Amino acid sequence: MSSFMLDDIRAAAEVKYGSTDIDLGTRVVKLLNPLRLPKKQRAALIAVQEKLNAGDADQEALLSEALSLVTETPAAAQALLAAIGDDLAVLVEVFSRYSEGTQVGEASASRD
Q: What is the pLDDT, as a whole number, of residue 102?
């Protein structure tokens, strides 16, 4: 029979489903993998992503909402969005890197 330590399983989950970290220069903001979010936040993120796919959606508002849902704390989300400002290209790039790093089964996009 196989036996595993829960701490080892947690460490493996962190490697596989870890955060995407954005360094703002003054602090690091962690964007959590959807699998690490509470169920309610995952459902809200799915709803936002569905709206993004609608085509006529306000990309800036929806991407900001999506990032707010996955950021480790509301204060960290505010700091990230303030640092991005009104630059839609940067907002899209941050979300793109987050999305790439959170593909199920792939390693984290975290930077050490």
A: 78
- 53-67 per-position pLDDT tens digit: 887 889 999 999 999
pLDDT digits (tens, 9 = 90+) for 84-100: 999 999 999 999 999 88
Instruction: Report how far apart, in Å, the C-alpha atoms of 71 and of each of 68, 89, 104 are.
Output: 5, 19, 18
Ramachandran bin of 11, using left for φ above 0, alpha for ψ from -120 to 50, beta for the remaining angles: alpha
Q: Crossing angle for the helix pair 74-84 and 88-101, nearest 10 degrees?
A: 130
Token pair 């940067």 is found at 90
Number of C-beta neighbours around residue 20 at 10 A: 22
Domain coordinates in residue numbering, the chain: 21-101
